[in-house]
Amino acid sequence: MKLAALGIVAAGLMLTAPAFADGQALATKNACMACHKVDAKLVGPAFKDVAAKYKGDKTAEAKLVKKVKEGGSGVWGPHPMPPNAQVPDAAIKAILQRLLALK
After folding, report:
1. Looking at residue 24, what is its pLDDT?
2. Pick the residue with more confidence: 85 or 3?
3. CB 98 within 8 A of CB 27
4. What is the CB neighbour count within 10 angstroms for residue 91?
5. CA distances for 6 relative to 2, 13, 35, angstroms
6. Which of 30, 50, 28 is nearest to 41 (CA)?
7. Would you state the pLDDT for residue 23?
8. Contacts with 32 (C-beta within 8 Å, 6 or more apart), sequence order
9. How far is 14 from 57, CA to CA, in rounded Å?
10. CA torsion sign, 33 to 34 to 36 to 40?
């Protein structure tokens, strides 16, 4: 029984690992990394800081998809985030899933 549970967990991890890699690649491809770093503030907040702010918030992904699409200002400092309407929703969601999983 324990072996079966371990197999299920391992299979789940193998399925989610590409999503983490895809999220990082998509963040680079869509120029997110021009203003953000994973673990340090650049122009915008560090991805780890965003993950910490929204930890446990079940509505975080939806809020952040809207913020990425429409842009915004005032939450993390004086520099506004420009709208990124050209980035497909699927790419934004993959990036955010990677970001929100950071510790």
Report:
1. 85
2. 85
3. yes
4. 20
5. 6, 11, 40
6. 50
7. 83
8. 95
9. 25
10. positive
* Cβ count within 10 A of residue 76: 17
- Is residue 38 within 8 Å of residue 46, measured between CB atoms? yes
Is 76:4 a contact under the CB 8 Å cutoff? no
The Cβ of residue 87 has, within 10 Å, a number of other Cβ atoms equal to: 18
Dig out the tokens for 6 from the structure. 């371990």
Q: Which residues are within 8 A (CB) of 43 and not within 5 positions of it... i.e. 6 or more apart?
A: 34, 35, 36, 79
11's tokens? 């299979």
What residues contact residue 92 under an 8 Å CB cut-off, 6+ apart? 64, 65, 68, 69, 84
For the full predicted model, state whether its pTM sits above 0.85.
no
CB atoms within 10 A of CB 51: 19
